[in-house]
Amino acid sequence: MEYGKEGWDYVTDISRAHLTRFHRLRNLVRSLTHANTSLWRDKRSKISTRALESAVSQLLPDSTSKSLLPAVRTVAWYAGASYKDPQLLFFVSPSLETLIFNCFGPSTPAGIHGMDSGTGMLSRLAQVSCRLRRIQFTWGWGESAEPLEQALAALIRQQNGLRSFSSLMDLSEETFRALTSSNTTLQSLDCRLSSTHALAFRSFAEIMSTGFNRLEKLAVQSNASIDFTSINPLLACPSLRELSVRAATVAALQPSGVKAMAEAWPQIEDLRLRSQVPERPHVHQLSILSSLAKDMGSTLQTIELDFRVDVSTQLPSVKEPNTFKVLRQIRVGEVDRIAGGREDDVARYLLSLCLLGISIAVGVSDLFGESPNDITLTRGWRKVQLLLQNPQQIKPIDQQTILA
């Protein structure tokens, strides 16, 4: 090949031997990744449109064929350095189930490279007959781009059997409304909300309450402040097993909220409610674990909440009547401080709730490597973790100073 004004051009034609081999193997290909974005010899590895058209015309077995790979099930496509014409459509067939669409590239003040090609491809794809089961959409700049989002919404509306949807672009109400076409099949949703769209978390939750009865996993990032009233519409999703919410602030859980969630989600296994700025009053009382053990103790495996423990924190001093049966990990977020030397109290409380032992993961502290072996060199949740691993080192209550 040689490099021209539009990109790389073929110097020699595709041989008959290559064609024979391609036609023999084309029905065996199940997965395709297109990542034509790298540099080679200081030139972007973009094949010219003329070369592509020539290659496709030779590779298609006959004039009635529309797909180069009729049995492909997964296509991962990077549009950032792609082409104006809809080359993606040559790889689409009724067998396609998973589309991983990445739209990113270098930007300039005049525009974002890759958006036009990404919008065009999604618009064409919406006109093709295929039954997608999974869509993973990555927009390299996070913030919304209206033409691209409209094309994505149009594609989603054409699907009525989606099982999984994931997006790293701030999405609007239009896109979430489009998902209702698959509300009876969607099992997993991972998305970001943006206040610039005037889509409040509660509005999003109300959309999700419209018949998403098979939804098992929901992960949401939002720059809004939410409380249990905002989450309440999600109680209409009876199959939920995993809920992860990361928002500007998440109001502290109350026992009544825990009970309502337990009744609505009898199979809940993973509960993560995190604030971007975990300060009072948006941190959870550690004693809320007693309510979680009482109402969700038979199913919860992972808990991730922002806790703060200080001298005023009330912790039961007797054995808890309700315990976690299958809990494996408590992630305590990024507030790793425990004031007033209460680590022994916290460890004793957790042992009373978790008879089979428990792993503690600390957000920020996890970045600094393994804990030291000497327990006197660590504080806060790191010390609690070591005490749980070595319960014989927990000080008995009568050896501790009674806090006023």
Structural description of this entry:
The protein has 404 residues and is α/β, with parallel strands linked by helices. It has eleven helices and 20 strands. The chain has a twelve-stranded parallel beta sheet. A hairpin with a 2-residue loop joins strand 8 (107-108) and strand 9 (111-112). Helix 3 (115-125) packs parallel to helix 4 and helix 8 runs parallel beside helix 9 (288-296). The protein is elongated. The protein starts with a strand and ends in a 15-residue tail after the last helix. Residues 106-113, 364-377 and 399-404 have low confidence and may be disordered.
Provide keyphrases for this structure.
404 residues, 19% strand, disordered C terminus, 25% helix, elongated, 20 strands, alpha/beta
Helix proportion range = 25-40%
The fraction of residues assigned to DSSP E strands is 15-25%
The shape is elongated
Number of strands: 20
**Average pLDDT taken over every residue:** 79
Instruction: Give the helix/strand class.
Output: alpha/beta
Summed up, what is this model?
It is built from 11 helices and 20 strands.
Topology diagram in text:
Blueprint: E1 2-3, E2 8-9, H1 16-25, E3 31-34, E4 39-40, E5 43-44, H2 49-59, E6 74-78, E7 98-103, E8 107-108, E9 111-112, H3 115-125, E10 134-139, H4 146-157, E11 164-171, H5 173-178, E12 188-193, H6 201-208, E13 217-221, E14 225-226, H7 228-231, E15 242-247, E16 249-250, H8 255-264, E17 270-275, H9 288-296, E18 302-305, E19 329-331, H10 343-353, E20 359-361, H11 380-389
Parallel strand pairs: 3-6, 6-7, 7-10, 10-11, 11-12, 12-13, 13-15, 14-16, 15-17, 17-18, 18-19, 19-20
Antiparallel strand pairs: 1-2, 4-5, 8-9
